[in-house]
Amino acid sequence: MTWDWSYAGDLVGPLLGGLRLTIAATALGYVLALALGLVWAILRRSPNVVLNQAVRWVIEFIRSTPLLVQLVFLFYALPTTGIQFSAFWTGVIGLGVHYSTYISEVYRAGIENVPRGQWEACTALNLPRSRVWFAVVLPQAIRKVIPTLGNYLIALFKDSPLLLVITVPEVMRVAYTEGGKSGFLEPFTVTAALFVIVSVLSSILIRRLEGRYAII
Amino acid sequence: MPSSDTMSEVPTPEDPQGAPMDKTAADGALPHGSTPGIRFEKVVKRFGDNIVLRELNFTVAPGERVTLIGPSGSGKTTILRLLMTLEKLDDGVIWIGDRPLWHMPRGDGLAPANEKHLHEMRKQVGMVFQQFNLFPNMNVLRNLIEGPVRVLGLSKDEAVERARELLDMVGLVDKIDAHPTQLSGGQQQRVAIARALAMQPKVLLLDEVTSALDPELVVGVQDLLRDIARASDLTLLCVTHEMHFAKDISDRVLMFDKGQIVEEGPPEQIFGEPTEQRTRDFLQAILAT
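Output (structure tokens, whole complex):
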């Protein structure tokens, strides 16, 4: 088997098209994961035992089942109950919900790291609940966990090729389809290279962000 | 308010942190108005099996300045934390003025307070902490205006103006844009004092406010607090191990041991001629350190 440069060159266009979809699904999934993860983390601190135990088990359930199974379930089984999304949005929801459970743990660690005195100062100043969270606790908690949050962004990105099983024409599915026509070596290699490039660029970006928001 | 003329004068070294307080600025910035007293009625506080306060009774008159002393674990900090609602009351009633802090009137009796009642009652109380507890993600100005704007409903301009007055009073106007981590411990505590006063409390709680400071910064903060205490009509509760400061700032000293008041009286009496052996032992131990 020999490497065909002209074939590899021809693939770049279609693969970049797929990569755009991969990045879109990653970005939207990550935003969903960040938001939903925050909801989990705050609910987990609820004084209501039923609520916070319920949330705990939901998180445990989602984390203990494979993302692939969740995606297939959302795309092929859920529609039988009448709830149906497009392949792309199913992918976004699957990635987002799955990673939200990991990210909620990251938030939780960050929140637990905020000294008790900060909460007490909030009480002494009589600050409303919303300000305690959004003006005092979360800004301090999140700064400390930016590197870990960044790692999960890259992990989510690397899991996104799983969307190929639910027919999303992302980069891996494009490579698979193209490879079926003229050989798999070039499309999969170029795809891997694209993943490396995006991952490295992302980690540089995250490190910059980390430097900028490093706890002062 | 009892006179403090009889207090022994403590020499006041030059303030290492900045200019001494400007009295006129202080009068404008400090809270004035009807000041409530405090009454503890059979107050009980437990931590697990450990009973920290057992049926404690005491009263602080409106505008009175009281220092709580005693060995660690004697319950003095718990008293401040109950007043700030940082700890839950187990039994008894705490009155601030004519209203119970932890209860709401229901029929002829009292029912446990809801969050709304606690929120109302907390508006009268301010606290300065041992570890300052400034918000490190906000600059000095935002630390000072967050509460006034979000809780007292001041406009941002009003809050900024008051913040400036208070910073002027504590000698730190030039640090208005600084972040807490850029300040020394003494400066952070001054900002924390200004932040507590910005909420216009009627009762001010001081919880070992100089214990975390380097020795050379202690006197400046103490002088500031003494000036504030004298220039305002705040009801003041102070927990401290600094006997000079206690003499300087208080009308009355309460000596605690095992959640009960062992002895009380004017500072000259407690520090000069204590009648109880436990007080004598405690003061000796303090002096030895």
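Chain B touches chain A at residues 84-86, 119, 122-123, 125-127, 129, 131, 133-138, 146-147, 150-151, 179, 181, 195-196, 199 (CB under 8 Å).
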